[in-house]
Protein: Phage protein
Organism: Paenibacillus lutimineralis
Amino acid sequence: MRNYCLKMTPYQMLMLKADMEDRLKYNGGFSADEHALWLQMVEFEKQFDIDDAEYKRREAEKAAE
């Protein structure tokens, strides 16, 4: 798995994501800084999902041996 260089803990990131989802829902958009942070969080989640799937695949291969 990759080493993630986070400025926030995963918990802080989830809380911020929930807050930003509410802002997007009620305000209709983000400022440029908020949008950049949003894209960073989305990219982090995608990479985490990819790494998690790779880890599970490797564990399944080990168990099958």
